Amino acid sequence: MYKYTKKITLKSGTAWKFVPPQDAIDSGVVQRQTFRDGRAARYEIPRLVEKVEAFRRGDIVAGNIGPSSTILQIYKYYVTTTHFRELAYNSQRTYDSTMDAIANTNIGSKKLGQIKIKDLTSLLIAMRLMKNGVKVLVCLKGISVQESFHY
């Protein structure tokens, strides 16, 4: 049996239902599908599973960028835009190195790049920055990284 797949028995025979994770559905990468033909299921389902895994790794750009997208997915989408491609080469390299550092910052058991935008909070980010020795001022409107505090 394949990942994200359920075998179901119908009156007319056997079918295989592909049920991908909700975040992959929300982003428009894949959708739920039912296969009644075993040959089609054996051919299509491994490809759909790989598509979901590539999406989760950030290799595939989400079709619908929104609050359920991760930071990494949004960045992967941004680098395909005309706006990014019109930047100078050095600016593109700076963006890449900065986003790589941000995406690989650990927040609890996850990397910051794997966290959905809707789950980000100023306090969460500030706590991680402070743990890394960066002085941060947390206020109601967000966070501000400070070089020094004046008491």
Give your account of this protein's structure:
The radius of gyration is 21 Å and the shape is elongated. It has a three-stranded antiparallel beta sheet with strand order 1-2-3, covered by helices on one side. A two-stranded antiparallel sheet has the order 4-5. With 151 residues, it is α+β, with helices and mostly antiparallel strands. The protein has three domains: 5-57, no CATH class; 63-117, no CATH class; 121-151, no CATH class. It has helices spanning 22-26, 38-57, 71-78, 82-85, 89-103, 122-131; strands at residues 5-10, 13-18, 33-35, 106-107, 110-111, 136-139, 142-145.
Short description:
This protein is 41% helix and 18% strand.
Give the topology:
Elements: E1 5-10, E2 13-18, H1 22-26, E3 33-35, H2 38-57, H3 71-78, H4 82-85, H5 89-103, E4 106-107, E5 110-111, H6 122-131, E6 136-139, E7 142-145
Antiparallel strand pairs: 1-2, 2-3, 4-5, 6-7
Number of helices in the DSSP assignment? 6
Mind telling me the C-alpha Rg?
21 Å
Strand count? 7
Helical proportion, percent range = 40-55%
Class from secondary-structure proportions: alpha+beta
Sheet with the most strands, sense and barrel status: 3 strands, antiparallel
N to C succession of SSEs: EEHEHHHHEEHEE
In terms of DSSP E residues, the strand content is 15-25%
Give the domain tally. 3
Amino-to-carboxy terminus distance: 62 Å
Large-scale geometry: elongated
Physical arrangement of strands within the biggest beta sheet: 1-2-3
Average residue-wise pLDDT: 78
Low-confidence region ranges: 138-151
